[in-house]
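S.,

As promised, the iron/sulfur cluster run. Input:
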Amino acid sequence: MISEKPTIKVSWLGSHDYCEYKWYLENIMKEEIPIVRAMVVGKEIHKVKEDEFRKVAKPTTPKEFLESKFYTITKEIGLKKEFDNFILIGKIDELGVDANNLCVIDDKPRAKPWFGTKRQIWAYCILVREFVNENHPEHLNKKIFAVLRDRDSNREVWKEEFRESNLIDVFNVINRMLSLFKNETEPIPNNIPGKCRACVLHKQEKCEFSCG
Ligand code: SF4
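Predicted complex:
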């Protein structure tokens, strides 16, 4: 018997927190959610920043990078980890390292430390820790910090050490997603009017549960 493990994208931790129903429509029911202009612009800005970094970056290996004594960064790191009942994948905007710490940095426009945003960064921290554990366990003693940075001002707006309780929180949400994948439960629509008013499905009158 073949059993397929669902692939959970780290970015889902943020969108699930915004509205579970919308997340469900998009990722389980595979409904087309209209693309808003901000998303297109966001991708373009991301690409420009990545190209600028590539022009000045020196090639290195993960081993050399993790051995850095002075603060060093790398960008756009794709990571994947297979757990017992799901696969977690994500691309980290920026990873910083020095002798004692790893900083997992996510850039967002108008960055605010919403709970879903923190969860998304904690999930990246899980991927980084698993990568170090599997490939370079000699660096497991480094503290891991979750960092949210404003994409446009480059200012750090939130920084916190990643803890075991954060991992439990992320796994609880992923378990909820898995039960939705298995049709064991019903998705819950958001009940905060401001979120619905900002939602593209509300604007296009495509959501029967909108409270906006
Ligand atoms: S309109 Fe509200 S309830 Fe409906 S998908 Fe959007 S955020 Fe969720």
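The longest strand covers residues 72-82. Residues 115-135 form the longest helix (21 residues).

- D.
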